[in-house]
Amino acid sequence: MWITRAQKVAWIDILKPTKADIDFVKKQHKFHPIILDELLHLSSRSRVDFYANYLFLTYHLPIYDKSLKTSRRAEIDFLITKDKVITIHYEDLEPLDTFMRSISNNINFKSQALQDSAHCTYFLIQEIIHFSMRQLRHIEDNIRNISQEIFKGKETQLLEKISYAKRDVLDFSIISAPQEILLSSLIETGTKFWGEETKIYLNDLAGDYSKVTQHVENYRATIEALETTNGQLLSAKTNNVMQRFTILAFLTFPMLFFTQLASIDFIGKFVAATPLRFWTLTALMGVIVVSLIITFRRKGWL
User: Fold this and answer.
1) H-helix or E-strand spanning residue 5
2) Cβ atoms of residues 28 and 41 within 8 Å
3) Alpha carbons 9 and 137: distance in angstroms, whole number
4) Model's pTM, two decimal places?
5) How far is Cα 182 from Cα 121, in angstroms, rounded to an integer?
6) Helix%, strand%, coil% for the chain, nearest 5
7) Starting at the edge strand that comes first in sequence, how are the strands of the sheet with 70-80 ordered?
């Protein structure tokens, strides 16, 4: 547990909450027992609830997991009163660590961020949104690498990379989309709780987060376009291979036809009667094959 105080507000940060931590929070304020019980485990949905003298907010943020090659969900719970902001999370989170270092090392930022619980909440969520923007960089890098390789004849290898990138964009979108709704709801509930003067800050958070969703949508459209292009290139390559095999099969037809004729008893005896007949038919078959090759080359089929 980490506690920092200013004249009008205190920020209490709890990592991996225990029963003792929840009892400490209970002594700080008369929060609803069901809310306190929820703090001991992860929540399945994002939410913002307005009570008579506090707000309860559950915020989910996407974090890229290198082992899974996709984004997973992390959670921060907020209990907000007029003079306290309590954050509860279940793993170390970069945005909270960054915010903690900022108020520890920068007196001006601390005085600005801890003016009241509204400003503290604003700067905390703003740091989380900035972190989400940074988390999009690996998706951008993956898409850039795919776009650079897509015309280098690596269609089969790119199938796996595109599939991983699509899954990452989808998982990021599933996690991030509800937060846009949450921040829109916070404009109304936060204004009721803190007053009309805080509406501009809450609108700013919603506006900043819309940039995250816009980037995700752009990446989704881009990776789908790359997938379509790669699929068309792969299909064209496959068709080209099949065309060549078909032509080769057609070129072997005269030889196959000659072999089948020769297997017939009386024709075989006729061909084998003199060497001249055999070599004449062989030359004729060669002329037919060469003529077909020349014709196919002129047509651009070979």
Assistant:
1) strand 2-5
2) no
3) 35
4) 0.79
5) 14
6) 70, 15, 20
7) 2-5, 10-15, 84-89, 70-80, 55-65, 47-50
Closest CA to 302 of 247, 225, 222: 247
Q: What one-letter code names the amino acid at 92? A: D
- Distance between CA atoms of residues 54 and 40, nearest Å: 19
Residue 15: in which H helix or E strand, if any?
A: strand 10-15
Q: What average pLDDT is seen over the chain?
A: 85
Contact (CB, 8 A) for 87 and 59: no
Residue 61 to residues 96, 127, 136, 214, 217, Cα–Cα distance (Å):
12, 12, 12, 16, 17
The SS3 of residue 229 is: helix
- pLDDT at 175 (0 to 100): 94
Residues 121, 80: contact at Cβ < 8 Å?
A: yes
Count CB-CB contacts under 10 A for residue 148: 9
160 neighbors 142 (Cβ within 8 angstroms): no
- Give me the phi and psi of 69, to 5 degrees please: 60, 35
Provide the token pair at 107.
Answer: 């007196």
pLDDT in tens, 104-149: 999 999 989 999 999 999 999 999 999 999 999 999 999 999 999 9
The answer to whether residues 219 and 143 touch, using CB atoms and an 8 Å cutoff, is: yes
CA 172/CA 203 separation, integer angstroms: 23
- Give just the sign of the alpha carbon dihedral 26, 30, 33, 39: negative
